Structure formats: structure tokens, C-alpha cells
Write the C-alpha cells for this entry.
Amino acid sequence: MIINVARKELKSVFASPMGWVILSLLMFAFGTYYLNGVNDYFAVMSGAMRPAERTGVTQFVAQTVYGLASFIMLFAVPLLSMRLISEERRSQTLPFLFSAPISLTEIVLGKFVGLVAFLSILIVFIALMLSTLNIWSDIDFGFIIANSIGLWLLVASFSALGLYFSSLTQQPVVAAILTFVALFALMILDRFFAGDPSNTLASLSLMRHFQSFSSGLIDSGDIAYFVLFITTFLTLTVRRLDADRLRG
Amino acid sequence: MNNFTVEAIELTRLYGGREAVSNVSFTLSKGEVLGFLGPNGAGKSTTMKMLTGNLAPSNGSVKICGIDMMENPKEAKALIGYLPEMRPLYKELTVDEYLTVAARLHRVSSGNIKKAVEIAKERCGLGHMSKRLIENLSNGYQQRVGIAQAIIHNPMVVILDEPTVGLDPIQIRDIRALIRELGSDYSVIISTHILPEVEMVCDRVQIIDKGKLVFNGAIDVLKKQRVGNKLLIGMHNPPSVDAMLKIAGITEAEALAGGLMRVRFAEDATPAEAIVQAAVKHNWGLHQIAPDQTSLEDVFMQLTYQEQSEF
């Protein structure tokens, strides 16, 4: 049933040009950075004489691309997640889902899976694009896999938060702005505590937990953080929708 | 086990202390079309939302074919097809795509989806609209898609909230015929505030006013109340009420403006002939005699008015 709701979401995304345009624009941006990364690599490395200054081509190029990806997702996810529930609320299509034999949890999970599946297309494409380096070089696939997992968990967290804000309002734009502000605050939270990295609030920052992935490290603590983050916001969304049914 | 497809037991819904629906109980059997009547804001839609599990009742319970909506919402919802007042259509999809989504979400097995979509389209006269975007369909066709969506999984109960609102007369006629047809296979509940519609399509009527059920019975009872044992007589020289009462069988007479007189006669009496003879004899100048029908509107007004006077 979750799959059926997810399929419906994907169908809606691809029924309008929106989905295709976002996919192509983002891939264009990532492709450009990838190309620049490769060019810069030769320029920088030819100037780096000592071995300590040298980095691998995987790390050099992938870090550029994944750095950009995490930043662009900050804008792209709110735009994609804003419609999920608020649009249904506005065009009064929620009763269609509510009166079908599916639970609220399945509806919310379905919508979440649908959005994450769409974004996963991008993540897979980025990984494939970076893997093409392997044609003339010997690259570090572990680094790409760690980054892909990290980026995937990051966008899934973005989506969960976006889904929650989308359930709060009837206006997709309001949902997008709220999501963006909340995500931005969570991203840069650790900057405020730069002097005191052990602060509890600083460890709430999404960016801090993404950093270990971006250096190629898969840390179970960070995975747990993302999983908890996603679960929290999905639960809140279910509760918000249940309040609709109870309070009307 | 009884054979009720829908059982509403003392349904009550509070909105911030105000009772939108209070203590509504009724049952529906298989193959019946139930009309839900009431003025605006009487609680029709709220009741329907509770029946379909879109709204939790503050008190009371709903059973669909014996399955409790609160305890087993998924099983109960699988037996219902619901078309809310605002059509829940995804306008960016085509008719086929939308109905496929509806079939999937309503647990039609994947092998039967194509067939279910075809049957639903055929029943609702949507065959030639398959590839059209719902957004580009006319109001009436969108309504048909809404109904198709509600019957796609062969539910036991079809609940339609104001299915003919905003349609043109021809479309209304078609939709009514469709509802009639659905009534032979499913239990149907429709809500409306158009009275003749109820008379045309429903077997049973419920009138709800200010959240309370004020009438619940077969449509015939309402019709009888409507026709009654009454005659409307038009005369150029109307006699006194007493003169009229002397004719055998007449129990009540009431003089109206413009030489008209309304008489009520006893059951089994046929005083029309006697009235005509008397009119000729006394030169009342009879020019009109016809059974007096109170319109359904009047009955409706009476029922809802009585309710008001209790307060």
C-alpha cells in the first residue's frame, strides 16, 4: 500500500514538466561542477609539488560535486515537498486518500517514499557520473558510496521535514518557505557554536552529521541521528493528519 | 447477523461545544437508495464524513456490513465508495491514470485493475474520455469521474455528497439515472437539498435539520403526506364553508382568496361528483376542480419548521 501511494506521488511529479525540469536543471548543475572539478584537478595538482599537498582525484572532484549537491538540495527539496500535503488540502483531495482503505501512516510513508525515490534518481545519477572517472583513473568507490549514503540520508531528512511543514498549511508556498528557513537554520546551527563544538545544540545541526560522510566516513552515530530525525518528523506528520480527522 | 449494510448508532459530532450532528441513528439495507435531505448547514456532510471515516464522531459508532469503522477502519473503508462534496480529483492526471490510482488504493488486485477501470468508465459513460486530462473535462464529466472513482472497487455502500450540484439539466438527468442504476446493485446514500431529486431516485428519505433527524421513512410516506385527501375547487360564486361541509364525505373546508376553496375529505370517500352536482344546482360557477397537492417543499418546510418551534 505504501508503494501504491508512492507511485501515485511519482506519477504526479512526472505528469507535469516540473519533475523533468528539476531533474535536468540539477543534473546540468552537477555536470558543470563535475567538469570544472576535473579541469581544476589538473591545474591544482600540477602546482602541488610536495606529496602532502596532493589529494586523490575522487576526493577532489567528488567533494566539489557533493558539496554543491547538499547545498542545492536545500533549495530543491522544499520546492518538491511543499505540494505533498498542502496541495491536497487546498484542492480538497485528501478525502480521496482518507476514505481509501489505507492507514494514515501508510499515506505519510507513501508520500515520503515517493519524494525520496524521486530524489534518489539524482543521487544515483551523481554516483554514476563520478564513476565515469574510473575509465582513465583508478577511483575510490568507497568514498563515493559513503558520500551517496550521506547525501541520501540528508535529502531524506529534508523531505521528512518538508512533508511535516506541508501538512501544516494549505499554501504550498508557505510550506516551502517554512521548510527552507527551518532547514537553513538546522544546516548552519553548528556555525554559531564554532567556538564550542561540544555544545549539545551544535550536534543538532544537519551539516555536522553530513560532514563525516563527506569525508568518506560512515559513522553509525550519524546514521542514527538521521534516522531519528526522519522518524520524528514523519510521526509528527501522522499526528497532524490524525488531528484533521479528530478535530475536523 | 442482520443484513444492514450501514448502521449509524447515535452519531454525535461536536464542533467546539456546538453540536453539528446530534444523536443520529439509522440503518440501511442492501439495494436501498437513501436520500439525505436538509437545509444548508444541517449536518448532512458532517454525517457523511463520519460514515466514511473522514471524521471521528464525538460519540456513537458506525458499522459497515457489521464492521466497526473505529475498530477496523481499513476493512470498513474497503466496503465504501465515497464522493465528497468537493470532488477529490487529481487534475494533472488523465481519466485512466486517475481511475487506476483509485483502483490500486482501494485494493483491487493488480490483475483486475484494467477490467475494473473499464467497467467503471462504461457505467459512468466515460469510455471516450480515457486519455483526456481531468482538468480539461467539463464539470459534468468531472462529476462522472468522481462517481466512477467511488464505484471502482465494487463497494457495498456508495455515498455521494450532493452529486448533482452545479450541473446542467441534461447532466443532472444522466447522473440521476446513473444513481438509480447503482441503487439496484449497491446501497446508496445521497445527500441533496433538491427535493424533487429525492422523489425521483430514492427509496427512503431522511430529513435532517440542525443536526437532528426529523424524518426517517419510505419515500411513499412522504408522497402520501403530499397528495393527501384534498381537493382544490375554483368557483365564481363560492358558497359558505358550511354549505360545502353539508356534502357527504367532506370533513373540512377552507376558503381561500380568489374564489378558491380547499376541502379535505374522509378516507375512501369520493366527493368530487357530489361537489360538481351541488355546484350546478346552486350555481356556484364551478370552473376548476383538482386534487390538491402540497408540494414536497411544503412538507419539508413543515417538518423543519416544527423542529424550530420546539426551541
Notes: Confidence is low (pLDDT under 50) at residues 307-311 of chain B. The two ends of chain B are 40 Å apart (CA to CA).
